[in-house]
Amino acid sequence: MNRRTTLAAVLALTAGFALAGCGGDSAPELKVSGAYLPQPVDQSMAGAFMVIENTGGTADKLTSVTSDLSDDVTIHTTKNNKMEQVKSLDIPANGKLELARGGNHLMFMGLKKKPAEGQKVSVELHFATAKAIKVEVPVRSATYVPKGSGSQGSGSQDNGSHGNGSKHDGPQHEGSMDDHAQHHAEK
Ligand SMILES: [Cu+2]
Prior knowledge:
globular
């Protein structure tokens, strides 16, 4: 008896979910804002940043990214100033996933052309649950920092916390981008 009741409950839940969550669990509701791609130094690589907000009651994951700029787009985190490729990034329910300088970012390798400031790069974000979202990401100056980006945690990143006169990307990213270049050069 008990088992049958449970099964019925599960079926009811599943059906509810299929009907866009009548059962109380809402689907992820994702919105992308503040996307930008700092103009890269050359065609070898570029990074992009944005905020993905989830107003739904269900968590989701950013699982992959495609773009007309590159066939090799990966998702990176930054740990101890080193970039690390990850399979996915969590987007919490009623929360947000922040991609920002010195932290999580999208990485484009082997660019098909060098994007210039003022242009837009078409990027498609793929998620575990939600439908893919297409974003026209504006190309900004190499040193662009979005206004009100105070939530990155590690303080000012543009003013020589490295002191090595880096002129293009955020110091952290650039330092580790060199690792990337080497890594890829070994192919
Ligand atoms: Cu990276």
